[in-house]
Amino acid sequence: MRTFIAINFNQDVKNRLLSIEKSLKSMSEKGRFTSRDNLHMTLIFLGEIAEDRVKLAQLCVKNITAPKFLMVVNRLGRFKRPDGDIYWVGIETNTILSSIYNQLYNNLSSYDFYIKDSEYVPHLTLARDYVIKDEEALEKYKEEFEKINIQVESIQLMKSEMIDNKLTYTVLYTKDLDTI
Question: What residue numbers bound the domain in which 28 lies?
Fold first, then answer.
């Protein structure tokens, strides 16, 4: 089963993210854009895990201790790729988010889950295989980027699968964060 741990968004946040995607589309020659239903921020990608390990992954998420918090989307960025770039929106440095990531990493590692060992760059992917047609317009858009405040109240263990030729994410478990 293909799985990951994520922060999901309410409809208002998704609308704001879709507005950014619409702007990106208007400045592109081509690209594949994240659908409304799939907008989320991955905390840790687990990849394919055996069904009997899902309960262990759930336990790792359940054992997180963190309060609800405000997360701020503050910039547009890209990962350069030869066949088209990946465009994303980045998250302002956040100690609670970092703590959640570190707890997940340690919990999962203690149960021998493989986690790619690289620096965590919190971001939300909006477009893949993106080819820009108007670099000047994009630079102006980046300068005028409006921040998005997101109230994070929970994290989810998710399943990723193709259903009727559509990439579909399903919540397997939700961990509600603590109220201060």
Answer: 2-176
Say how far apart CA 128 and CA 38 lie, in whole Å. Answer: 14
Closest to 7 (Cα-Cα) out of 41, 32, 36, 33: 41
Count Cβ atoms below 10 Å from residue 16 Cβ, excluding itself: 17
Number of domains in the chain: 1
- The per-residue DSSP string of 68-106 comes to -EEEEEEEEEEE--TT-EEEEEEE---HHHHHHHHHHHH
Average pLDDT for consecutive 10-residue bins of the chain (180 residues)? 96 96 92 93 94 95 97 94 91 96 95 82 92 88 94 97 91 92
Sorted by sequence, the CB contacts under 8 Å of residue 178 that are 6+ apart come out as 65, 66, 67, 68
**Do residues 60 and 162 make contact, with C-beta atoms less than 8 angstroms apart?**
no
CATH number at residue 155: 3.90.1140.10
What is the pLDDT, as a whole number, of residue 84? 86
**Would you state the pLDDT for residue 114?**
83
